Amino acid sequence: MAKKNNVCVEPQEEKKKKRGSKAVKATIITLAFGLLASTVAGLSVALYYSNRTLQTHESYQRQMDAVYFKAYYDLIDGANDMGVTLRKIGVSNTPSMQQSMLYEVWSAAELAENSLGVFEAASDGLVKAQKFVNQLGDYAHALALRISDGEALTEEEKATLAKLGDVAQAYLRALERLKESVDEGKLFVGEGGALDGVEDAFSEFAEPSFAYPEMIYDGPFSDALENRAPKGLGGEEISEERGKELVAKMFECSDIAYLGEGEGDIPTLNFSFEEEGANAFVQLAKRGGALVSYNRGYADDALPSATEEAGASCQRAALEFASKMGFEDMQVVWSSSADGECVINLAPVRDGVILYPDLVKIKVRENGSVVTGADASHYALNHAERTLPAPALSEAEAAKALSVPADSEGKLSLIPLRGTREYLAYEFECHVGDATYYVYVDAATGKEINILYVLDDSRMGARTV
Amino acid sequence: MKAKTGIFKTLAVCALVVCVLAALTCAVFAPERDGVAEAAVLKQGSTGALVKTLQTKLINWGYMTGKADGIFGSKTKAGVIKFQKRNGLTADGIVGTKTAQALGMSLGGSSNSGGGSSSTDLNLLSRVVYGEARGEPYTGQVAVAAVVLNRVKSSSFPNTVAGVVYQAGAFDCVSDGQINMSPSQSCINAARDALNGWDPTYGCLYYYNPRTATNKWMLSRTIKLKIGNHSFC
């Protein structure tokens, strides 16, 4: 019986087991299908998005390529125009014609300069290529301005311009080298792109085969401005100890740290000390030990704006500070205020003439009129005993050059122009509507030589441009 | 049992794979966020340079005592409420646009509507300073701004601030996007000093961090001044 029972029971259990395993199998299959389906769905979503990202990436890359291609083609245009116009000037003999072509050269050089500026300048060749084209444009501009004074080009200037034509040729050669890879259909951006070849293409400029003339002329990029010796500094070189003594006397401070020398255009000894919890940085001229720069940082806070009366006491503080530092006979020529600090510009006055090239700037915290900075680099670079010419024109004669009536007396001033020369001029303040202008009339010729416009700006303070 | 364990293992692995795939998909394709989110409001719990500016103003104007620590706590909140009450603002202790305006603060990076080229240059320059030298001493920050301006003046570089800043490869903060962060007040001050003529480097055109710089051409240049972590040349 037992056996029978056993025999009877077994099939039922097996059936149950079979049913059970079928259910498990079904579940597993369903789950597996589910998993497969979600994996496929997930992958499709991933694929879709990766494709979309790739497309966006490619679109950005094409846009970047467009920027480089535009710069490349503009550079070719600029270099071509420079070269051709420089040649034409060589055969022209009429000042007005020469002037118009010099302006064309200036404009072509600007185009080339802007286009070249798009490319990375991490090699001597590219940096010099930029320098040449900037100077070329600047030189052409300076000559064009001079022609407006009625002088034609000299033979020497013509020869310099002809030499500069070689610079334009060198540009075209460099671009020719790049052209090969562009013609092959290479893009600029991406691995092995034409961008990799830019440095090589311009390597000729590092040690040019053409004769590049030294460019001394009246312009901001003139070689005369490089490595100029500071005129306002004299005396013996000072030692670290002497420097510390001077700083202690100037700022009535102790614990002065020596930070080494600065070997820029103005050689300095650098010091720092703590002042009201902030770090103050002082630079003294290595020759003579005069104060060249002082600046104090703040913690990350904006200072409260000051009242109107603050202006006057800030100016007093600035003048006192200047006198203490040894800058005598200074007069406030400009002051501007922003974010709770004002910058007072002081200039020395000699025989009634304001000497703008020798500007000293003093920064004063309006809250409490505390001097927090000074910059005497212009003074260090330009200050010298000058023999000022007597003005050829009276103030009334100079005022005839103005197109709008002046609201102030003409002040005799010495002004720096185009970075290289100083002119004796009458300064007139004029108003048109709300706008304020300063017009400078040459005291020798009666011509306007500069016009400044006062731009009032909440973040920078009032400035002239 | 062994077979079942095997199946469950397979299932578990499949599930894991799907999860990982899903997570990866999300991670890879989630919209990229900018490194910085602008604080639209300052409230209790906020921290940073803007809070410090707020606190300094409140302390200077007598609405709060203590130190400006850059953490917006209950004391700062009380100060803000006091300020709001006295100035006819909703006294909720939260610095939104109106309270910020009354305080003479700007909460956003580009909300200043003041036009004019100098303001634009100041903005761009202070962003460069923040992106390149926010950890440097104040003079180091002025020096970085001055290098940008020295390049503008130099014939060997583009002739505008934007031209110099955005020249390819010129500044790391442009390549890594840090230039798009909001500058701190210290960096704005430093940029303004440089625009006003301060230049501790007296004409330098380059700077680098000797610990991280790799460019041989750069490293070959004569160093003229060292401030903080930067060598100027």
Distance N to C terminus of chain A: 119 Å
Low-pLDDT segments, ≥5 res of chain A: 1-8
The total count of helices of chain B amounts to: 10
Radius of gyration of chain B: 25 Å
In round numbers, the mean pLDDT of chain A is 86
Could you state the order of secondary-structure elements of chain B as H and E? HHHHHHHHHEHEE
**Main pleated sheet of chain B:** 3 strands, antiparallel
Report the oligomer. Answer: heterodimer
**Structural class designation of chain A:** alpha+beta
Task: Specify which chain pair forms the largest interface.
Answer: A-B, 79 and 77 residues
Quick structural overview:
The complex is a heterodimer of chains A (465) and B (233). Chain A has 465 residues and is α+β, with helices and mostly antiparallel strands.
Q: What keyword list fits this structure?
A:
A: 465 residues; alpha+beta; Nuclear Transport Factor 2, Chain: A; 9 helices; extended; B: 233 residues; Muramoyl-pentapeptide Carboxypeptidase, domain 1; Arc Repressor Mutant, subunit A; 2 domains; 3-stranded antiparallel β-sheet; 10 helices; 3% strand; elongated
Q: What does this 3D model show about the protein?
A:
With 465 residues, chain A is of the alpha+beta class. Chain A has nine helices and 14 strands. Chain A has three domains: 167 residues, no CATH class; 143 residues, no CATH class; 70 residues, Nuclear Transport Factor 2, Chain: A, CATH 3.10.450. In chain A, strands 1, 2, 3, 4, 5, 6, 7, 8, 9, 10, 11, 12, 13 and 14 form a 14-stranded mixed β-sheet that branches. Chain A starts with a helix and ends with a strand. The N terminus of chain A is likely disordered. About 13% of the residues of chain B have low confidence. With 233 residues, chain B is mainly alpha-helical. At the A-B interface, helix 1, helix 3, strand 1, strand 2 and strand 3 of A face helix 1, helix 2, helix 5, helix 6 and helix 9 of B.
